[in-house]
Structures are given as C-alpha cells and as structure tokens.
Design brief:
By secondary structure, this protein is α+β, with helices and mostly antiparallel strands. Helix 1 runs antiparallel to helix 2. The longest helix is centred in the middle third of the chain and has 15 residues. The protein starts with a helix and ends with a strand. The relative contact order is 0.14.
Length: 147
C-alpha cells in the first residue's frame, strides 16, 4: 500500500474504535508512524475493515504495533488473518518472536478482556506486567509468542 494511504486507513479505523483508541494525540502519532511500517489491511469490497502494523525490533524479534478491526467485522476471523499474515512475513525474514503491548489483566474494561482473550487464542502468553510503563490508569501487559 502507498505510505500515505496506510496512515489514512489507520486513522479511519482507529476513529471507529474509541473504546480502544480513545486518545486523539496517540491516534495521530500511530497513524503517522504507520506510513513507514510493514502493514496489512483487510478489505470488504473497497472499504478497509482492519489493519495490523509491525515494528521490527531486532534480527530475532518484532512487535505487533497496532491491530484494529471495525466493530461490525470483529469475531469473523479478520484479526486472526491479519496476525497470521504478519507472522508469515516475519517467519520468511527469520524472525522468531512476536511481542505486543496491551492493557494488563488488572484492567477490567470489557473490550480489553476480549482483546487479551483474542491474543491468547492466537498463541500469545503473558510475559510481564509493567503497571507504570504508560501510566497508572493504563497498566501495560507484554505478551509474546514464538512464531
């Protein structure tokens, strides 16, 4: 995808998911950064309905940076397909580990309960809690999987 279109897609989808992406300044930064990252987009006709971006951290590891699927397309396999596509790309490059950051189990927001369950279903395990990485209201959980 063209780099400017990546930012537009990320911004558009995050804007529809306020429960997960509720900080406009963070959303703007993530959308701008998407232009320079590996990214996959799921489409329904000519409409983008999901995306995933990656950070390549080292020769051995990458981070699932941002994943978003519009609400009406959630629980239809789109997120799993995006993660699988990213994993295949990473495997071909010799990367063995994929990590991500999300809200820790101590956060009881229903959307993030489902988020953590999704990642666990995809084979990720909890590696460590970092309760003050972001801030006290948003405790961070690092999850990882061998790919």
């Amino acid at each position: 995808e063209q780099n400017d279109r990546k930012s537009e897609i990320v911004s558009e989808i995050m804007g529809q998911l306020k429960e997960w992406f509720g900080l406009p300044e963070v959303n703007a930064r993530l959308a701008a950064e998407a232009a320079g990252k590996p990214m996959w987009t799921a489409w329904r006709g000519d409409r983008p309905v999901g995306f995933v971006t990656l950070n390549i951290n080292s020769r051995w590891s990458a981070e699932l940076d941002v994943l978003g699927v519009v609400r009406e397309e959630q629980r239809k396999g789109i997120g799993a397909g995006l993660v699988s596509a990213a994993e295949e790309y990473l495997k071909k490059g010799g990367i063995q580990y994929l990590a991500l950051k999300t809200l820790a189990d101590s956060d009881t927001h229903e959307g993030f309960i489902h988020t953590r369950a999704f990642y666990r279903k995809m084979g990720f395990v909890s590696l460590m809690d970092l309760p003050t990485l972001w801030n006290a209201e948003n405790p961070c959980l690092i999850m990882v999987k061998k790919i």
